Amino acid sequence: MLTIPRLFLSQWPCALPVVAVAAIFLVTISGCRDKVGIPATEPGQSGEPAVAPVPVEHQSQAVLPDTAPQSQSNPEIQQAPDRSSGPTQRGEPSPKRIHPPHHEPLAAEEVTAVNEVPEAAKVREPALAGAWYEAQPEQLTATITGYLKAAQPPAFPGYPMALVVPHAGHRFSGPTAAHAYATLQGRTYERVFVIGPSHRAAYRGIALPDVTHYRSPLGLVEIDQPAVAALRASPLFTSQPGVDAKEHCIEIQLPFLQTVLPSFRLVPLLVSNLGREDIVSAAEALARIVGPGDLVVISTDFTHYGASYGYVGPPANPIAPSQAQAGLRELLDRAWGLVLARDLTAMAAYKRETGDTICGFLPLAILTQLLPKEARGQRLHSSMSAEIAGDWSNSVSYLSAIFTGLWPYHGPAGEAGLTPDEKTALLKLARFTLERQVRGGPRPTPNDAGITVTPRLLRPSGSFVTLKKEGDLRGCIGNIPPDKPLVEGIIDNATSAALHDSRFSPVSEQELGSIQVEVSVLTPPTTVDGPQNIVLGKHGILLRKGRAGAVFLPQVAPEQGWTLEQTLQRLSSKAHLPANAWKDGASFQLFEAIVFHEE
Q1: Domains of the chain by range and CATH?
Q2: pTM of the model
Q3: Cys staple from 170: which of 85, 174, 193, 452, with CB 3.0 to 4.6 Å?
């Protein structure tokens, strides 16, 4: 554990570089930056279906009901019988029902796995390898890498927090999906929540995994069991054994995720029938768990058009094959616009009006209610299967998109946590201190601020107080080690952020009305082996090399949209080291934070 003299840690600005003074290591206490085709039945080899009856998802998710169905005897949610004659050899839509010889996916033992199964693991084996994508790791990696290199996603602000991606076979939807996955390169996430529609089974609610790992040809992916256990507290999240055995919407995403992310744990969620209130409740349950360091992936295709899918456009305005390209583009644009607006009522009205066969309509609806209001969405790419198959009598629409921003900080559980009332009290104390000190008054006490001081607020804790003016940094001072009671740290750091941050002039009385106060309460720092342990958004980073060092709060990198390498380069520069000094001989300590601010 790095030991830092307390003398130099309690009143230092959050972005001033470290200075070497004699043999004493001074750490900059600056967390803030300086100003400076969906298979309805059986899969084809590339993931578009052979001609089949209307898929079950179009029956169970065709409308957004006011209340969820209570019984599977309801004919609207019964699974359509599988009458297809099997998958096509190459996976193209085959409206004439002419099929080459049956081609099954490779058996699990034929898929070369990268890593061994842990003892006592229960593994969901791949059902699509060798059919919807390559079964051999080298070939699969080459294909995914090729898609990623070809993708040219537009510039976007902020840090990716959620993606919308298609889930047909890679030949059809891989290039579109790659535009979203390319935005993740160089970034780190601890958990990935993949939320998609159940295509093969109908039930009320959201199915949780009953396995410990998913396998793809690129290796095993561990299920995040604490997240699964936490979701079980909601009656909407239940076990539905076997529903994912041949489900494609989650599996098809894994090779992309395993290629672009160095490591992650998976939370796979299969959505079936939900009413409007259920959608809101599901989003609330997820919001209690999803936080910084997490990525949400919505796996969905958009309009499934043609006789093969039992849909030829809105009932009041059918789309002829000769007009399919324009008509399907219009539906895609309208549907995405409603997702972007996050208007659940308008989404339901659109579904009733058009009957649009969006298989992941309910996962998309959940996302609209889960995203914080500050999140920003951006469409990245879209395509249609008919552009490949060359037959506009049947087509599936694909879209990829990104939402950027920060999931709310829940902070670590247990003793480090804070109640809502304690957070309110700390913000009130910081605001009171700010205004009294700027006006030249004496150092306040918690009693002066009129707050209730609980035992947690008296516990020694690291903290930062950040001041922002119209979104820009105006001051940021903190202490990392837990060397003083939390309330005393808030008073000291609010005073210093307002009056003694050397990067800024003191805050004036005229500015007080435009200043927003943010408080970060820290866990004690722990030493890690290297930067591979860093999860951007979750971890604050304390870098040390020789007598120099610097620190970033957890929220800094996501707020700036930096990759891990960019974050470490800027952290090195902030310590007055060469930008790449972090690569050799540097040590790292990580901490977490509970971050909250004035509205």
Answers
A1: 6-30+410-597 (3.30.700.20), 56-62+81-398 (3.40.830.10)
A2: 0.79
A3: 174
